[in-house]
Amino acid sequence: QVQLVESGGGLVQPGGSLRLSCVASKSIFSANAVGWYRQAPGKQRELVAAFTGAGSTNYADSVKGRFSISRDNAKNTVYLQMNSLKFEDTAVYYCYARWPGRGGYWGQGTQVTVSS
User: Fold this and answer.
1) CA R_g for the chain
2) Is the pLDDT of residue 54 over 80?
3) Cα–Cα dist 5/106, whole Å
4) pLDDT for 59-103, tens place per residue?
5) Strands of 3-114, DSSP E
6) Per the count of CB atoms within 10 A, which of 61, 89, 97, 112 is most buried?
7) What is the mean pLDDT of residues 37-63?
8) Distant-in-sequence, close-in-space partners of 83: CB < 8 Å, separation ≥ 6
9) 3-state secondary structure at position 75
10) Are 47 and 31 a contacting pair, CB within 8 Å?
């Protein structure tokens, strides 16, 4: 069983920054998809940012220019740097990773609250 453990969430004021981390129990170098999703109360889970095939990245339009996804394969860790946070970024953020032949896995989620 693969485990993904997120950390770094918290309470931040509008305009502030947070960096989320996701540590995997399996090498993310071999993953064919790694990314971050979020789910706000009463809304569906949505893609925030992800590494897709061939190392390319994909961002939700709402976070382009503010969020940045990165990875450290040696540490099996994926990061989400979030800058210029807005009220509407408030959500539970989930890490997701998929490996060939093993399917996809979700972390337990970390709460991000943007409030003044």
Assistant:
1) 13
2) no
3) 9
4) 999 999 999 999 999 999 999 999 999 999 999 999 999 999 888
5) 4-7, 10-12, 18-24, 33-39, 46-51, 57-59, 67-72, 77-82, 91-99, 103-106, 110-114
6) 97
7) 93
8) 17, 66, 67, 68
9) helix
10) no
